[in-house]
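Morning!

This is the sequence you dropped in the shared folder:
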Amino acid sequence: MTDPFTEAEANRKVLTADESAEGRLDQWLTATLEGEFSRNRIKQLIEQGAVSLNGGIITEPKRKIRFGDRIEINLPEPEDPIPQGEDIPLDVLYEDDDVIVLVKPAGLVVHPGAGNWTGTLVNALIHHCGDSLSGIGGVRRPGIVHRLDKDTTGVMVVAKNDAAHRHLAAQFADHGRSGPLERAYLAVVWGRPRQLRGTIDAPLGRAGDRTKRSVKREESEDAREAITHYEVVERFHEKPDASCLASLVECQLETGRTHQIRVHMAHMGNPLIGDADYGSAFRTKANLLPAEAKAVVNGFTRQALHAFLLAFEHPSTGEVMHFEAPMPEDMEALVEALRD
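The structure's back. Tokens below.
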């Protein structure tokens, strides 16, 4: 008996019917591809036009097959699963028919994606809001108009209907340049910026990695404008030469790029404490701290970043809404340890 497979790729299979070929195409394929596809799946692929016989697409599962026939199966890309509601607690600051404002904890991914199809903020929102949640952001991101990194904490707003989503999305796209949108963060960084107050205007782009970012030249193809305003709020373990081991810095975003604050602060030589992606080279600085503070810093396993302030125009009333959230316990403990 000849081998029916003449070609096989991740999303494509080409077979030549061997001596066993007789009867219906779907039956022969099911037997030949035993363990890979059920008969129902084979039938579905044929009806969807994903199977061709001797160069021509067929849509009839019962089509007769003969020895020597060439069959090609083009498998569609796998579809992302539709998020389902999950009973995950939410720290809600405000809610009405248009928006929900909440405080995102560390460790919570905002929307489903590779490796995180469940247990996300979206799953929690679907359970909490039900059918009222906006779908304009797409099936995987219903109601989401902005996001925080998995291990960044702080205030977020979510749209509960399409009109609110469009209104909020426009505000975030404008970055508050002509409206009331305001986003401010607290970050604990190594050292202190040379200037206690300033602006970082440095374009960002991909860093050769699907998830990481780096500062780019303006002429780079993937460079996107990124502007962060910062001010040093507090300095820890200051030395006679005005340097210090760490600082608490307030950052305000004029643009909202992926990892913007984390990359900008690292670019200045002041990466966030706990940032494994952009500050790992600074881990040994913890050895310069007193034993108790060193233990707290070494035990802080996420970037020390908290979105403490969010202001926006309500999509229905036009009222400027202003929300603040105190630092979470772990970050507060980090600051207290550095103070001591």
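Headline: DSSP finds seven helices and 16 strands in the chain.

More detail when I'm at my desk.
O.
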